[in-house]
Amino acid sequence: MKAIIKGLRLAAGAVLVAGVMSTAAQADGVRIGIAQFGPHPQLDAVVTAFKAELAAAGYKEGQNTTYDYAHVNFDPSLVPQLLTKQKAGNPDLILTITTPVSQGAKQLLKGSKIPVVFAAVTDPVAAKLVPSWDKGAPDMTGASDLQSLDGVLAFTRKLLPKAKRIGVPFNPGEDNDVAMLGMMKEIAPKYGFTVVEVGVDNANDIPVRISSLRGKADVIYVAASNLLQPAVPAVASAANAIRVPVINAAEGPVRENLVLGSFAVDYSQVGKNAGKIAVRILKGASPADIAPVKPAYADHAPLISAKQMKMYGVTLSGDLANCGCVVQ
After folding, report:
1. Any idea of the CA torsion for 87, 93, 96, 100, to the nearest 10 degrees?
2. Residue 37 carries which DSSP code?
3. Which of 21, 105, 137, 192 has the highest local Cβ count within 10 Å?
C-alpha cells in the first residue's frame, strides 16, 4: 500500500504509462490490451493471473501473443486518453481493470467491435456494463470482485462479538460503492449490525469524515472502493485515533498492522476468471453469451493482525481461535 500512496502523489498528468509491447511477438499473433486504473498489489495480481491463464490455453506472451499494458495512476481524467490509444492499436481484446476504466471503455469503444473483458468490477449490473448477472453485453463481460458481504459480516461478528454498529465509508460518486452500501444495509441486520454510513468523495476529507464516526460506530468496514482502498492508511489512522477497529476488503493493510482484519477476495482468482472468459472470446464466443463471474465463498480468506488485536483487546474464540490466520 505504501507504493500506492507514493504513486498517488505524482503529478497525474505525467503518469499515463505507455503500453510495453513484446517485440518477439509474431506480427499475425493475438494482440491484447490491458487498461489498468493504477498500480496496486491486488490489481497487479489480476494481470499476472490473467496472463497465466491465457498462457495455459496456448496464448503465450513473446511467442504468439502481444500485450499492450497501460495505467493512469488512479486519475479518471486520463482514462479516455488511455483507451483511445489502445483502441488505435486495434487489439483482438482489451482487459479493463476496475469500474471507472470499464465504464470508460463501454462509452469510448462503442461500435469498435473490440471485445472487452472487465475485471475487479464489484457490480457490473449497477455500473451498467452488462444487462444482468445472467448475461453479458454484446461488447463486454468479465470477472467481478464482488466480496461476499455475508462472509465479511459473519467474520466481523465472530471477531467482535459485542459490536453492534458498523461504520461504512463510501464514495457517493462511485457506482461500486453505492451498490455495496445498499447490499450492506440489506444484509447487516441478519448479523445483528446497524449500518452507519458516511460519504467520502475526496481523499483529503477522510480524517474528518472518519472522525465523525466517534461514538457512532463500534467497527468500520472499508470496501473495495477505488477512492478508499489507496487511502487505507489515512482511514486507519483516523479510526485508530477514535479507537474504532477497521475491517478491510483487502489483506495488505492487515499484514502491515494498519487494520484489525480482513475477509478478502483472492484477486488472483479474479484474474484467472477473467482469463478463462478471454480465452472463450478469442476462440469465437460472443461476450453476450458469457455471464459475468462472481468470486465463490471459497475464494475468500480471513486474516487478523496480532498487533491490532492487542491494541483493541480482542481475544479469538470459536473457529477463529484455530484459524491459522493471525499475522504478527
Report:
1. 50
2. S
3. 105
Regarding whether 280 and 246 lie in a shared domain, the answer is no
| Range of the structural domain that residue 94 is part of | 2-146+266-298
Q: Give the DSSP letter string of 62-88.
A: TTTEEEEEEE-TT-GGGHHHHHHHHHH
Same domain, 133 and 162: no
Q: In angstroms, rounded to a whole number, what is the distance separating the alpha carbons of residues 19 and 122?
A: 26
Same structural domain for residues 272 and 124?
yes
The span from the CA of 72 to the CA of 17, in Å, is 7
| All three cell numbers of 17 | 504509462
128-148 pLDDT, tens per residue? 999 999 999 999 999 999 889
pLDDT digits (tens, 9 = 90+) for 29-45: 999 999 999 998 889 99
Which CATH number characterizes residue 83's domain?
3.40.50.2300
Report helix angle 99-108 to 175-187, nearest 10: 130
129 vs 319 pLDDT, higher one? 129
**Residues 187 and 312 reside in one and the same domain:** yes
